[in-house]
Amino acid sequence: MSSYGRWVDRRTVHQYNNSSDGEVMTRVPSSKTNGSASRAASPAKPPAASHAHSHAGRDETCGPDEHARRARTANLSEEQLERAAAIFRAAGDVSRLKLLSRLCDGEWCVTELAEAAGVGLSTVSQQLRLLRAERIVARRRAGKHIFYSLADAHVIDLIQSAIEHAGEPHHAHDKGHEAHDSHDD
Predict the structure, then answer these.
(1) CA dihedral over 170, 176, 179, 185, signed as positive or negative
(2) How much is the mean pLDDT over the chain?
(3) What is the pLDDT of residues 166-178, one digit of tens each?
(4) Domains in the chain, ordered, with CATH?
(5) Which of 57, 90, 145, 178 is the most exposed place for a label (fewest CB within 10 A)?
(6) How far apart are CA 108 and CA 14, in angstroms?
């Protein structure tokens, strides 16, 4: 059997290699039975050569109480996920993101947005039409002027958070992962 994964028993541990250094990770399978309940459990020891970290005397599995936060994910519908993906696709273009960033400061006229971007009115109108179709921006007509703003506080937070996150130094993210990863050992 491969050292990359094997089921030992429905109540024991699934082992898999999930790292470049050969560390063998473990996880408890779901409580659904697969007809192997009568099988005797055999110890699941990783091959010595591929186990990079010693966990002597430490339970490597996690309990159900450690994953209570995941229940929220199950409540997401496919429609919600598709809509969220469409929002990211629409906002994922640099020129549209620039428009959205400007709109974080408040309402802008289409003419102002075109001048600030240094592009034609038709180009900005087309970008805004796409953003409006995804309900990212809202528009308001005042006489011959059309004003755009971000649709709601969620969009404002999303755009501002993305831009702030992108401006953080890369090493700050590495330190966060190293601190998080050290708790997983």
Answers:
(1) negative
(2) 74
(3) 999 987 556 555 5
(4) 1-75 (no CATH), 79-156 (1.10.10.10)
(5) 57
(6) 55
